[in-house]
Amino acid sequence: MTSHDVVARARRIMGTRKVGHAGTLDPMATGVLVLGIERATKLLGHLALDRKTYLATIALGEARTTDDSEGEVLTRAEPAELEAIADAAIQAGIAELTGDIQQVPSAVSAVKVDGKRAYARVRAGEEVDLPARPVSVYRFDLLGVRRGEGTLELDVMVECSSGTYVRALARDLGSGLGVGGHLVALRRTTVGPFTLAAARTLEQLEEEPALSYDLAAAVAAAFPRRDVDQATARAVQYGQRIPAAGMAGVYGIFDPDGRVLALAADTDNAARTVVVLAPA
C-alpha cells in the first residue's frame, strides 16, 4: 500500500476530498503516516517533520538491487562468512554509520534525477548514480541478533533526520562488513511529534471515523505556541500585522479561549501570518 492509497481510503472514510499526507511512507513499510483533513491540509507543508524513528530488521549476507527484500540478489555471502562476523564487528559497523554522515540514497528512492524519480528510472531499466548527501543518524541501536544456518538478521532502532534512508543504512552496514545487506522489515514509530500511540489503523477509522488531533491540538503538538489577547486575536483574524513574538521559525497563534487562529513567523519587528486558520 502506498501513501497515496492511504489517502484515497481516508477520503472515502472521512467523506471529503480534502485529505493530504506529509512524510511519505514506503509501500513496504508500516507505521505512522501523518494525514491532514479539511483545514488541516494547510498545515502539511509547514510541519517540521525532520526527525523520525524506525524499528527495522536488517538481513546480512545478501546485497539486493533495491536494498530491500523486494529486489533481485546481487551478491550472496557464504554461511562461513556470516558465522565469522562477531557481534563486536556489527556494533563497530553501526557506530560508523551513526552521527552526521554522507549517504548515497537507494537507487529506488524518490530522489529526482533530471526531473524524474530515481525509482522510475530504475524500473525503466536505466542505470542510476546518485551523489552522496549529508544526513544525521541520531541513534542507531542494535536491539537483537538472530543467527541461523546461513542467515544473520539484526533488529535495530534508528532515529534520524528527514531524507535518511534506512535501507541505505542496511546496504552500507552489510557492505562495510564485507557480506552485503538489505532491509527486510521497516516500521516508522514517530514522525516529528506524532507517534504510534496516537495513530489509528484504517480499519479503526472505518469503524469510527474520528481525528487523532483536532486543529488546535495538532498545531500545539507541532509548533511553538503564542497566546494572544482578544484585541490581538481580532487583528490576526483580519490579516493585520501584530508585533513580533521574538520566536524562531513558524509558530501557532492562539486566542484566549485556546482556539488556534493562524501560523505565523517573525519578520523584523512584526509577525507575518503564514496560514490563517480561523479568518474573521
From TrEMBL:
Q: Which UniProt keywords apply?
A: Isomerase, tRNA processing
Catalytic center residues: 26 (nucleophile)
Instruction: Please tell me whether the keyword Isomerase is annotated for this protein.
Output: yes
Q: Sorted alphabetically, which InterPro entries does this protein's record hold? A: PsdUridine_synth_cat_dom_sf, PsdUridine_synth_N, PUA-like_sf, PUA_sf, tRNA_psdUridine_synth_fam2_C, tRNA_psdUridine_synth_TruB, TruB_C
What the protein does comes down to: Responsible for synthesis of pseudouridine from uracil-55 in the psi GC loop of transfer RNAs.
Q: Which family does it belong to?
A: Belongs to the pseudouridine synthase TruB family. Type 1 subfamily.
Q: Quote the protein name from its UniProt record.
A: tRNA pseudouridine synthase B
